[in-house]
Automatic annotation (TrEMBL):
It comes from Sphingobium fontiphilum. This is Uncharacterized protein.
Amino acid sequence: MIRGGLLAVAMLLAALAWHWSALVARARVGAAYGARITCSCRYVEGRDMGSCAKDKEPGMALVRLSDDPDSRAVSASVPMLAGARAQFRPGWGCIIDPAH
C-alpha cells in the first residue's frame, strides 16, 4: 500500500518536471494577460477592481490581481510561477512592464 502511494507520488513529480516549462510559460501568459486586461478595465474604462475581476477568462482562477492606484498599475501573479505588471500611460493605454 505505501509502496503504491510512493510510486504514484514519484510519477506525479516526474510528470510535473516533464511539463514544467509549459506550465511556467502558460503562467507567464496568464499573468501578463490578467495584468493588461485588468489595467485597461481599471484605468481606461474607470471600473472598480471587483467589476474588473469578472472579466477573467475561464481557466484564470489561479491568477491573483492587485491594484496600485498611486502608480495607476495592476500586478498579476500565478503563485510560485509567474508575475506581470501593467501600467497606464496617457496616450498609450496600459503597457506591460518588461522589468517585472
